[in-house]
Amino acid sequence: MQPLPDSVLIERMLSGDQAALSTIYDRYSAMLFGALMRILRDKQAAEEILQDLFLQLWRNAAQFDSSRGSLPGWLLVSGRNRAISRLRGRANREVLEETEGVFADTFLSTQNIEEEVSRTELRQRLTTALLKLPTEQRQAVELAYFEGLTQSEIASRTGSPLGTVKTRVRTAMQSLKQILT
Fold first, then answer.
1. Whole-model pTM?
2. Residue 113: its pLDDT value, please?
3. How many CA atoms does the CB half-sphere of 172 hold within 13 Å?
4. Are 50 and 86 in contact (CB under 8 A)?
5. For residue 52, how many other CB atoms are within 10 A of its CB?
6. Which among 56, 55, 37 has a CA at the least distance from the CA of 47?
7. C-alpha dist (Å) from residue 151 to 41, 140, 147, 180
8. Are residues 22 and 108 in the same domain?
9. Number of helices and strands (H, E) in the chain?
10. What's the pLDDT score for residue 12?
11. Residue 49 in contact with residue 36, Cβ under 8 Å?
12. In sequence order, what are the residues at sequence separation of 6 or more whose Cβ sits closer than 8 angstroms to the Cβ of residue 108?
């Protein structure tokens, strides 16, 4: 049996189907949690943002526009933005070092095999797509989305002008959209 497309699940959510939200949660929560942990390095904060994301999706499912991008992309960008806002709100912006094994269980789940395979394929597609980007674009996207840096922080870290960083990120996102669709 083929899994239901995200668009069908969103339509069902709009009519109040809680099982549709549950399916979307099962499909994307592990991936989102992993991304949030990479940015925040704080399990409780990542869990709070994850919960907020799905509550927002439930309340505002009509705002999702599939013509502008995929649901996991929309959730990932929303989560990334919330995580960065959370980091900026911290009084002490100390750099936390990843200790061995901290994220070892990030992608573990109790999902069935089909869902796990689907998620693994999505991660592989994303990894492959990132490798197709020029090095500078890939670096800018990785710093922005996996380390949670702002474009100004990326410019500072890489020694590139801010306008160049903005162009690299925008061009990379457009390329990824074309590669993944």
1. 0.53
2. 53
3. 24
4. no
5. 13
6. 37
7. 20, 8, 11, 23
8. yes
9. 8, 0
10. 93
11. yes
12. 30
**52 lies in the same domain as 82:** yes
Nearest to 29 by CA among 8, 57, 59, 63: 57
Same domain, 63 and 150: no
* Residue 100: burial class (beta carbons within 10 Å; 0-12, 13-18, 19+): exposed
Q: How far apart are CA 29 and CA 33, in angstroms?
A: 6
pLDDT score of 117 = 61
CA dihedral 178, 114, 34, 166 (to 10 degrees): 0
Give residue for tokens 């100390």. Answer: 94
End-to-end CA distance of the chain: 23
Same domain (yes/no): 35, 113:
yes
pLDDT along the chain (181 residues), means of 10: 85 92 91 88 92 91 80 86 82 39 38 58 80 92 84 93 94 88 78
Contact 130/22 with Cβ under 8 angstroms? no
Q: Are 158 and 165 in contact (CB under 8 A)?
A: yes
Domain range for 59 is: 6-119
Does some domain include residue 152?
yes
Residue 156 structure tokens: 């500072």
| Residue 90 confidence (pLDDT) | 60
